[in-house]
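User: Quick one: structure for sequence A, then sequence B.

Assistant: Sequence A:
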Amino acid sequence: MLIVGGPLAAVSVVKGGTEQPPTAAPPLANAVRAQYAEGEQVHSVDPDTKVSAGVSMSARPWGTQVVLQLAHVKGPLSCSLIAVGKDGRRQTVTTWAVPEGGYGIPGSAAKWNREPLYAAGGAALDRNEIDHFEISTLEGRKLATVKA
């Protein structure tokens, strides 16, 4: 018997009258990290802000799947990742909030703040059409640029 109740549901299997303990699906964060590891990766550290940004790209029939890895950024901030095409087209890949403690801050008291942020999204641009990515606050302050 297989019971599936949603993306993070537990799975229970009964075999020969013995029920196996439920096994949780991997957390979403681990799935996004796995997507990052599987794609074509580019990385940069902004010389002014010191923000470290990595972008992983995977070609899809609909465009490009993009996963961002972001570190050395303190909040509170609201940010966006923009894919910029070679022809100048701009497409928002994803937006997120940075808590006061930040992401990827070595030596932070909270584990959550020591870990980099992983955020996933997509652009309707083919991989070969993307020139670079811009990471900025929603107010327009540039945090980092990553050349594709």
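Sequence B:
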Amino acid sequence: MELQQEIRGFLMSRRARITPEQAGLPYVGGNRRVKGLRREEVAMLAGLSVEYYTRMERGQLGGASESVLDAIARALQLDDDERAHLYDLARNVAPGSPRKRPKRTSPITASVQQVLDSMSVPAVVQNGRLDLMAANDLGRALYADLFTMSRQPPNLARYVFLDPRAEAFYADIDEAKDQVVAILRVTAGRDPLDKQVTELIGELSTRSTAFSTRWAKHNVRRHSRGRKVVHHPAVGRLELVYDDFALPGDPHVSITTYTADPGTPSADGLTLLGTWADTQKQPQTTDDDVRRIGRHP
């Protein structure tokens, strides 16, 4: 990902969504040639010179102070996720920023798997690329489609945009697609040297118009907590709450748990999911097994 282009696209998309009225500027009649705020209006709101802000919007964020970034964030009315993304972009173009990505060891240890297996609710471990790196039995059962994908580890972004089964699984497939793209945008801004992220974005952009259209909007979102509704092929509709818990040593890899409100049909559905998961672990008896067993007294 070209960081200067990313900075330019992000800042331009944020000012394009804010009208002068929303920014508290006095109404000026006549036609405006730009959608949203002009550069000089953002500069005025942030207390910067037009020339300085223009350089920043062209990707020259390196060396910008925290106070300058905060001023831009206020002028553009950035939310917490967008503000954090702006800081990530500025850090990665700052003088002296690393040009090689440090090698990381896998955070999935035997103890992490033991924690997953001890949970009584569906749980998976995922990274910023949305790879499902580990799961307990209920987590595998919840995402049964993903764990049967030909390419492993299973990836939620590939599933949502490239696997036709996702259309039936998610009650709101558009929301799922929006969320996936926004999470990947955060990941790409935080770690632009991650070759696997770059390759994933390139693959999805090439193979999915729905992805490339959303990618061009520069929306960002950090995955932490929320609700989702899915239609599981074996147990039906599930309304779930998900929570993320960062793993020690790598805050960008997390355990995600899925729960349902007690006493609801979805809570009953999770119980049924556990029963179904147990059946998936039982060895299947084949015709050859029956014939072989029949030969013994």
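DSSP finds 14 helices and five strands in the chain. The two ends are 67 Å apart (CA to CA).

User: Thanks, that's what I needed.
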